[in-house]
């Protein structure tokens, strides 16, 4: 019963996961570009003249206090929320503000929400197989013959996420951390150019956090990765460049050492323990 409900819900999610269509042009600039973006909810400015640039292949960490606008920023990038003003470009060719959620996903922007939502009754392998589902429905995808190319991609992804030995196991038996990796793997099946990852290590053990750090740092370069995270130990372990959001704008940006010694960042977010 639960499984069928999951399928139905998931099918809606997979509507947003169709393969990349037109190439993203990063020859002359960043992969993601937000300029002067603002959005208000009932008169409250959740995002306020936000400027943000992500380079191709970059791993960027976004930190900031509760309510700083991190989730809203991701909602704007993925087309879930429309800003009141500003520009949002994916490479130099794609104006994301003129596109809807499925089209933005099809360009190669994958989003990992905080909670894992894998199909517990299906095996790890089948979950990945399903994730190649494009705009087709789920059941035919499972019963279709698999091409060598898809099999190769699944093998590649299984290695990346470290679940090769568990590929025949139902996803329901995986630990919380393994489910998170599987879900990242499901996004990787679509070969995204940009991955947005929301609080990936919440609820993970130390060991799982270390493995997640390896996974995310290993993905950067192949694709751009934007990680929103509150766990400062984890951010420190993966961070190259860190952006601190506060009241819907960038408060500080730089290396972890730079931002964590910035008095403004200490005041609004890190407190005296930084
Ligand atoms: N749909 C909405 N309607 C009204 N207010 C909203 C809506 N979405 C976000 N907000 C408000 O906008 C502000 C920014 O919220 P957002 O969730 O983006 O912050 P955040 O940085 O992700 O916080 P957290 O770290 O707690 O997840 C908050 O004050 C929130 O209450």
Automatic annotation (TrEMBL):
One of its GO terms (molecular function) is ATP binding. InterPro entries: AAA+_ATPase, ABC_AA/LPS_Transport, ABC_transporter-like_ATP-bd, ABC_transptr_urea_ATP-bd_UrtD, BCA_ABC_TP_C, P-loop_NTPase. Keywords: ATP-binding, Nucleotide-binding, Transport. PROSITE patterns: ABC_TRANSPORTER_2 (PS50893). Pfam families: ABC_tran (PF00005), BCA_ABC_TP_C (PF12399). SMART domains: AAA. This is Urea transport system ATP-binding protein.
